[in-house]
Amino acid sequence: MWMLVLAAIPVAVAGWAVLSPPVVLSREMTWDLLFNLAGAWHLHLGQIAHVDFHDPVGELNFLLTDIGFDLVGVGPHAFLVGAVVMAAALFVAAASTAWRRLPALPAAIFIAFVCLLSLMPANVGDNPNAYSFAMSYNRYGWSCVSILFLILFQPPQPRRWGDALDIVVAAALLAAMFYLKMTYFLMGIAALPVAALVSPHLRKARYGWMILAIAAVALAISPFNRAYWSDLVAAADAGQARDVLADHINNFLAHAGEYAPYLAGFAVALWMWRRGDAPLRLPVATGFILAAGAALLSQNAQTHNLPVAVVIAFLFYAVLRERRLKLLHGGSVGLLAALLVFPVLSIGASTASLTGYHLKAMHHTTATVESTNLRGLAVPKETPGLLAAFAGTQSDYHLLNRARAIAPRYELSPSEYVETLLNAVDFLRKAPGRHDRIVVLDQVNPFPFMLGLAPPRGGNLWSGPGAPVPDPEQLFSDADSVLIPKFSTFSPWTQQALATYRPYLDLHFPQKAESDSWILLSRPPRAETDTAPSPSSDLRSNANVSTRAP
I need a labelling partner for 205 at 20 to 30 A (CA). Which of 277, 281, 302, 535 fits? Predict the structure, then answer.
């Protein structure tokens, strides 16, 4: 009871902090938030992930937002609802794991750690005030794998049906990680034989864990997941697998001080085992968790921070509490409390991020979208910037990129990006021809979601560095319009796409219109659609819808 009360209070407050503001604030990487909304919109209209659209990330990340669409309507707030749904599921999994393994206070800290990590409005490894909601699947994945490792490497107190509960929770976590991001699933599978060697509670229920391992492998190789694997292979072939060892070494050395305590912990675990003060399980689990965390980090966009390493502190806590080393005498309580500093600091970072987000989102210091299904999205207000300076000039989308050469982290600020999207909506309403199925030569295509239109089938959900380049027939056959940004979120990919698809576009999309920010290419009207209603009226009626498109 105390564990649940202590854990539920911070998790409930965190959920309120993200849901209560009237807007969804995005300070960085707004296009990544729209990537999630666009993927959820595909699912909302009945399209199938990895078949109708392609991405190496699993569909659970988008399914959570689709649940939000059903609960609160189509809009940016649906993403936050999906995050809270995920945090609630993690709360159940973490509570059912921790209550048999840790005292009330450490168990509550563990539950709060994994839940607040999933709700944090910034990517792991970014500043707490990034407020991007980018790559949410990584935060969910870190939380899931942390719970799984505590199940596998910390023996529980015996309870009736306890082993069965552990196996059920572990199975759910593995399935979630499989449909979030494959690397987390693979590390979870790799942990099973390691834990079986050193964890007595796994050997005690060996048949149940063997069935779990067989079921997890069967899930992975099932025929209905072949399309998922095809997208993963295509992404790896295109260069999305980060396999440059020098980059990983440089990232490690740049943040060596961050990892020093964990490496020291591994050395202490070995020393304790050699002295007979700790079971072999402690150094093996510590070494494996560090190696698994490094492997996961190597395939993420982030360059540092290993949330899963916090589990090591709980393993040490449990061993020292059980052994009551004679060496420590009366100082054992102080050392046990010191071990909890690691997860408490992680909770502090998540709390700071959530608190700052809530305060910023509640104050009117942002520019808020008032139209389309993007209404409710807020971005920082800015004085007229480079985009405004170039408005009305000759169409050359390299201008902004050259002007930003000495500047920032991204080619467009969030406010500039949103401004170009709203400009495109106005442009499409006025442009001649039908624009019901739109392809965009940028990293993300948010317009079907924004306008309530059916997305074209066959393209990538994310088109950026290392993304596969689809065949033109696959990408454009279901489209009637192509939008080319003059100010791209990633100009190298836009330039590559133009060079690759120019002959096809010239042949099939000859009609051209142009605005300050966009170039629109249109397919000639097909015979059967010559008498269709004008697109301007269609787009006006779709601009504010939040229902399923026909």
Answer: 277
Burial 429-444 (b: 16+ CB within 10 A, else e): bebebbbbbbbbbbbb
| Closest residue by Cα to residue 501 from 468, 476, 536, 525 | 476
3-state secondary structure of 513: strand
Distance between CA atoms of residues 129 and 126, nearest Å: 8
Contacts of 74 (CB under 8 A, 6+ apart): 41, 44, 373, 449, 452, 545, 546, 547
Q: Which tokens sit at 428? A: 């499409």
3-state secondary structure at position 146: helix
User: What is the enclosing helix (H) or strand (E) of 437?
Assistant: none
DSSP E strand stretches across 297-410: 366-368, 377-380
DSSP string, 245-266: HHHHHHHHHHTHHHHHHHHHHH
pLDDT digits (tens, 9 = 90+) for 363-404: 866 688 898 999 999 998 765 544 454 444 444 444 444 444
3-state secondary structure of 66: helix
36-63: pLDDT as tens digits: 999 999 999 999 999 999 999 999 999 9
